[in-house]
Every structure is written in C-alpha cells, then in structure tokens.
Known about the structure:
Layout: H1 6-27, H2 34-41, H3 45-51, H4 55-79, H5 86-104, H6 106-117, H7 121-147, H8 157-177, H9 183-195
Amino acid sequence: MPRVSQQYRDARRREILEAAGRCFADKGFHSTSMQDFFAASGLTAGLVYRYFPSKDDLIATLAGESLEQLHAGVEEAIGAEEPPGTEEVLVRLLRTLDELDSREGLARVAVQVWGEALVNPTVGAIASDGIARLQAALERLVRTAQEAGQLDRELDPVYAARALFSILPGFLIQRALDPTLDRAGYEQAARALVAGRLHHA
C-alpha cells in the first residue's frame, strides 16, 4: 500500500477545517453535533476523528490557525527587505480575514469563538495565546515604523498595537451581523483612519 504523503494529510485536514467552519457558521457550535457535521460535510467519522478527536479540538484549531495566519502576515512584513507601511499591513490582514470568511465562514465562527473562549479553558488558552502573539507582532511593527520615521515616536507601541488589532475583530463582528459588508470599502476607511485622513486638510 502506498504511503500517504504529508501534502495529502494536510489537504484532508484543511478540508475538514473548512467544512467545520461552514457548519459551525450555519448552526453554531452548541447546536452542531459531530454527527450533524459528518452528515453536512460528507466526511466519515473515522476520517475526522483521525485528525480531530473532539468538537473542542475542531473549534480550538479553527481559532488558533486563523490567528496564526494573521501573525505570520505581520512577521513577514516586519522581515521584508523593504517593510510595507502600517496601513498596508492592516490592508493585508483585512484581506486575509475576507478570504477566510469566504472559505469557512470565519466572521460568524470568530464571534462564537470569542464567547466560547470565556467559558471553555481549551479554546480560551489558544485564543489568548494567539491574540497575544499577534498583538506582540503588531507592537514590533509599530516600533519598526517609529524607527523609520513613519509613525509618531511619542506613541506608545503597546497601545498602538492594540488599537490596530481592534480594527480586525471590528471587521469580523460587522461582517457577521451584515454579510453584505464590503471589505474594500471597510479597507479604504480603515486605511484613512490609521493615516489620519478622515478630516479635510
């Protein structure tokens, strides 16, 4: 029997996560049983349990991997030979969220994850760790921009990072409540907000 490649395993794992995201977005974590998930996704119990032993594992992984994608995007920007401006990084993060929402219903899932994180220690630990890592990366981004003379040096990098971060869940909450929310329009306004261009000169 041929050995299953890591690429194949990764693809199946991703398929399961995307199906879980769509299922949880439609029915909610607590209203979706694993049996509901198997039926809706067309995946067998054996296949799913091979990768994720429980529903909590699925929920925690969805939360952790979304945050990790955002974190990786910020780290990539910081490490670039010519780092992009803060507004450009924010735009890239919003586009990542938009893509994840299109694939796996991230906006509706994220709102549920935040609520679950308050009462479920497993999900809470992963969400807290992922958010802390992302905020730390944003703080380094702010410091890098300050050193390059792109941002006010008097600005506290810790709170600047938190303010930048808040734009991301703000987008997801509004998209969850209003699926017609246009990412491009939100992106344009967020870019103007960060650049201080909301007022006429």
